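Hi Prof. W.,

I finally got the TetR family transcriptional regulator prediction working! I wasn't sure whether to trim anything, so I left the full sequence exactly as given:
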Amino acid sequence: MRFFAVNRSSCPKACRYQERNTCLCHLEHIISLTFISDPATGRRRNAVSHDAILDATYVMLEEIGFDKLSLEGVAARAGVGKATIYRWWPNKSALAMEALLRAVEPMPPIGDSGSARDDIEQHMLQLSQLLGGKSGRVVREMIALAQFEPESKRIFNDSYLEPRRLALVNVLRRGAQRGEFREDADLNLVFDLLYAPVLQRLLTGSGDIDERQIQSQLKLVLGSIALSQPILTPSKISSQQA
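And this is what came out:
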């Protein structure tokens, strides 16, 4: 359990934790959010052990998948006790989700080449390379896990999908402002149409996730919102004059 340091005088009632200068009953009265040691062991979270556990979990997810993953196996591979894992993660699902997100985050920034279409293409090709490799199996396992555990679904959506949605929608909006795309296009729907076929192929194995497929998607999806006569930006005018 995590405890936070708090001035004992700020607790409006005499809880039994005041003897340790900690209060669990009224966290809204916290004065200092300083993380302190686990009261059961007196130990702080060891960063080296923490990283070793997450590294071991991610490698084992790639090797054997989520179903065969065990906390005993992770502990042995990381060189820690099983109790250490339980002290920091409530279950295997929470550990696996954090290991996945740690491995794939942060998302590489989407550049601004002057062409929103080209920037989106580069992003989607990077995505296909990631999901087309061994890491794709881990993402598939986590998506499947998220269907049965609401908290895992929330974490996956908030930490994995939403940052990508915001980044891609921002590029689409930039393209609309520059005259590449229709301004009335539903940009969140465009994101769904770009990501859904990739994730569908990942989950079902119904087709390859490669450059050819990405190019076909881009032509179909972005072509539906592209303006027939894009407005020339200063950079494009300069390049044409050159």
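Residues 1-43 have pLDDT under 50 and may be disordered. Does that look reasonable to you?

Thanks,
D.
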